[in-house]
Amino acid sequence: MAYSIHYNTGAGDEYDIETLDLAMETADEGARYTQEDIDIVDDETAATLSRRWCGCLDGLDECDDPIQFGSSGYYADWS
Length: 79
Prior knowledge:
- The chain is of the alpha+beta class.
- Helix content is 14%, strand content 34%.
- The chain contains one helix and six strands.
- The chain has a six-stranded antiparallel β-sheet, with helices on one face.
- Strand 3 (38-42) and strand 4 (48-54) form a beta hairpin.
- The longest helix is centred in the N-terminal third of the chain and has 11 residues, at 20-30.
- The radius of gyration is 12 Å and the shape is globular.
- 13% of the residues are buried.
């Protein structure tokens, strides 16, 4: 099984990642202020796991593991 990371910017996507945990870790390390969601796709089933972008701080306190960019916004937990 392999996973792909899609940053939804048209560049920088990553492919053939062996485990979901590694894909999540890699995506978190590659997260930048793009104002786009980050998606991980299971290449066999096309199931998607996402970190949704929020362009404000509403809901930040409800997240367990956000990636915050100051007061400009954050990526919510993986879902």
